[in-house]
Amino acid sequence: MPKSMTGYGKSRLESDAFTQVWEVRGVNSRFLDLKWRLPLFLRPSEAALERVVREAVARGRLEVHLEFTPKRTDMWKATLNAGLAGAMIDEVAALAAARDLPFAPDLNRLFSLSHLWQEDAVDPDPTLFDTLAGGLRLALADFNEARAREGQGLAADLLTRLARLKDWQASIEAAAPAVKAEKMEQLVARVTAILEKVGVEPTQDRLLQETAILSDKLDVSEEMTRLVGHLGRLESLVKDGGEVGKRLDFLIQEAFREINTCGNKAQNLDISRLVVDFKAELEKCREQVQNLE
Predict the structure, then answer these.
(1) Which region is the signal sequence (predicted)?
(2) What is the pLDDT of residues 106-158, one digit of tens each?
(3) Model confidence over 5-27: pLDDT tens digits?
(4) What share of the chain is helix, strand, coil (3-state, %, to 5)?
């Protein structure tokens, strides 16, 4: 079964040195679009992490977040922007002196200003990336399980709708010959009446010529054949699964083209109603397909 592009996955791994919590959220997108929220020390590894993501996901807009919490203080180093902190204290001290106010800097408040600090991981263990990539793979596996569950529901809905479309297609195909014969009879009667009114005897060749032209305009057999093929291919793709979203979307566009032509050719109220219902249901299929990878 195909997978949805919408889902959520999470993994949590702990070791003696640190805890890693990965979260992956996905929504619809035509291509694979990644948004990272990573610790600074891991930013240079984004390209390698993207390759890990591409092993599991082909399409969608993903937000990938890592919460990395060291358990050992020697894994972090914190750098204070001493120049900026000193300048801030000097400015406040000058302001207090200008107004003859007492001033004693509150270092605890000063240290709470996050923009004065820069946190970095010390040179990480060479195996750290492999450990983090393993945590990301677990989150992606959980993410794919959620996408598969939603994709199964979408596939079941699509198959139900496709069965309904097949029934309507069969009804249109069954009604088309009678409509065609009726229109041709009406044309023969109309042409005969007009020619007799002006005193011209209708010839068989002339009637055959007019009916042949009308027959070609009303014939929907080719459109029906292609439509049956598109519906069958849609059903098989949904059942086969995999990365079928774009192919399903293209086939639905082709089905729209064929049913529009049938509606224009039919010139019958009952068939027109079936065509309207068919197009409305096909549009619902297209909306569902937009969610599939």
Answers:
(1) none
(2) 888 877 777 777 766 555 566 788 899 999 999 999 999 999 999 999 999 99
(3) 999 999 999 988 889 999 999 99
(4) 65, 15, 15
